[in-house]
Amino acid sequence: MNIERLDYHSLIVFESVSRHLNAGLVANELGMSISSVSRHLGILRDIFKDVLFIRRAQGFVLTDKAIQVLPCVKQLLHGYQTLKHDHTQFNPLTAKGHFKIYAYNEFTYVINKVLNEFILPLAPNLTFEIRTLSSDCSRAIEHGEIDFAVVYEHFKDHKIISEMLSPTEELFLIAKAGHPVFDGELNIDNLCKYGYFALDNFNDLCSPLLEQIAKKQGKSLNITGATDNIAALSRHIIDTGSISMSCNVFTREYFDLIPDIQTCPLPHELTEQLLDMINVGRRVGNYLIYSEINQSATHHWLKQQLFNTIRDEWYLALKS
Question: What gap in Å lies between CA 201 and CA 61, rounded to an integer?
Fold first, then answer.
């Protein structure tokens, strides 16, 4: 075993392959080519005189040797990260890396905006993959397959770090411009007179909040459909005359750009009643979530930049 050949890059490839079990995902995470990943695997296999990762149809499988070596590799990488974090100066201009950020549909525009206007001018060598979240991402976050996600308060928090970007303090009614709902008092009785099309992120609620509170009061709400796409919701509202509701100021900003759609805040008392229906053990609001796997200086810097810029955009939108 020629341990002198073991270097930092080979160690991070070892650790990344052990998590992703896929050379393509490793290449994306580390910002290198698949051939470079294969080259480092070749070096590792020569050093340890073991295949380490057996290729299968579903991805790599760790050998017994790889399982034995992995804790040592993680310990060495932790030492490197401590040295880098505590004793070197981070420069975003020279930082490199590829990051995956997933978010609900309402946040994707703002994330792209802050990346292009605030983050990339400071760190031009970073690359990003921004995706709309369409399923529970908790496991992928835990394993480092997704670097960051921006979500509401409904998420599994096993091994996930969460930081609240902003609390939900207002709810907005959405309907076709000139809809009769705006002529009456915005209370449960009047809202239940109209069909309701829910803006629902892959059923993160068992049923719309408005339906839940209506049932508690012995009333019924006619649910005409549900979607997790705000563009689709706009068509349904215009075409069917249904009303809807959102807690997201970015969603309200979007609908305010559409002449045929009108929005307004719900009364404070009704908003409090609706928000009280959410009981998930954490404050109702918007969260930046990530795992503790990536301890690089670039990850720490990007996390803070995302948190600050998305939060600032939220409060700017709230004031407008």
Answer: 34
What's the pLDDT tens digit per position in 64-77? 999 999 999 999 98
**Portion of the chain with pLDDT greater than 90, in percent:** 56
Domains annotated for the chain, with CATH where assigned, are: 3-87 (1.10.10.10), 97-168+284-319 (3.40.190.10), 172-275 (3.40.190.10)
Confirm if 315 and 166 have CB atoms less than 8 A apart: yes
Cα separation of 280 and 254, whole Å?
28
CA distances from 266 to 100, 171, 195, 228 (A): 35, 6, 17, 21
Sheet holding 244-246, edge to edge: 244-246, 172-176, 261-265
**pTM (predicted TM-score):** 0.73
Which residues fall within 8 angstroms of residue 19, CB to CB, at 6 or more apart?
143, 144, 145, 293
pLDDT in tens, 214-252: 999 999 999 999 898 999 999 999 999 999 999 899 999
In DSSP notation, 70-85 reads HHHHHHHHHHHHHHHH
Burial code of 8-24, b = ≥16 C-beta within 10 A, e = fewer? eebbbbbbbbbbbbbbe
